[in-house]
Amino acid sequence: MDSIRSWWERYRFQTVVVTAGIGLAWLIRQTQGVAIMEAYQFLSRPFQSSVSKQEILQDAQVRELRYRLTELESQNQRLKELLKVKVSFNGSGIWAAVIGRGADSWWNQILIGKGSNDGIKSGAYVIAPGGLVGRVTHVSPNSSQVLLISDPNSQVGVVISRSRISGMLKGQSQNIATIEFFERDPDVKVGDIVSTSQFSTLFPENLPVGRIKSINLDKQPAPEAIVEFSTPLGLLDYVEVYPF
Predict the structure, then answer these.
(1) 223: closest CA among 165, 177, 184?
(2) What string of H, E and C letters represents the secondary structure of the chain?
(3) Quick check: 132 and 150 in contact, CB under 8 A?
(4) pLDDT in tens, 20-53
(5) pLDDT in tens, 212-230
(6) CA 197 – CA 100 distance, rounded (Å)
(7) How many angstroms separate the CA atoms of 222 and 236, rounded?
């Protein structure tokens, strides 16, 4: 008994630290780091920008309208040449709340609170204030999983609204993505509006995606540009789902 007491008095601090560390690691694993993220948000709140989430979403809506106006102007020019325009939206979408997203997959996927019981099917495309969000990949009776366009596994056929230059957009696990152009010398400028292409097999055409932030024409094997999404994908509360 004396030896146990002596051992405890000698290694008490180390034992408490190791036990606390194991407990903290288990808690982080079970909550997928949500507790740490909440603590970080609380501690960093005094240093965060004073811009409210509502203002960010309103700004996204303004950007979407501006991008749609640019796309409409481009369509009008094509109408004079082709005398026809395809319509991107058919019928009414299904509004759904975002009910889940993992701390380790924040930019990869979201879980929404509507499923097959509400008429949602795999392959449906998802939008929000600002433009394109992603597409439904898995559906259960009361919820659906959405692959975000910011996921590195997501590939979206896009087009530059001004010049109609096409490319492939790939997510970068943040609020930007890259476009790899099909042409060696694409007609693209910083600030150009990016929308889904008529050649896309996963999304309808003319959905706003974002705008060109920077360009690297020397990138190999093909020229590349950085796109800033028009939708604040990190702040989604509600989305709208359309069949496709």
Answers:
(1) 184
(2) CHHHHHHHHHHHHHHHHHHHHHHHHHHHHHHCCHHHHHHHHHHHHHHCCCCCHHHHHHHHHHHHHHHHHHHHHHHHHHHHHHCCCCCCCCCCCEEEEEEECCHHHCCCEEEECCCHHHCCCCCCEEEECCEEEEEEEEECCCCEEEEECCCCCCEEEEEECCCCCEEEEEECCCCEEEEEECCCCCCCCCCCEEEECCCCCCCCCCCEEEEEEEEECCCCCCCEEEEEECCCHHHCCEEEEECC
(3) no
(4) 666 666 655 655 555 555 565 555 555 555 566 6
(5) 999 998 888 889 999 999 9
(6) 30
(7) 33
Instruction: Phi first, then psi: give them for residue 104, nearest 5 degrees.
Output: -90, 0
Length of the chain: 244
Q: Which residue has the tokens 């959405």?
A: 146
CA 40 to chain centroid, in Å, comes to: 22
With tokens 């920008």, the residue in question is 49
> What is the β-pairing status of strands 208-216 and 193-196?
antiparallel
CA triplet 143, 149, 155: central angle to 5 degrees? 115
Task: Please check whether residue 211 is in contact with residue 188, taking contact to mean a CB–CB distance below 8 angstroms.
Answer: no
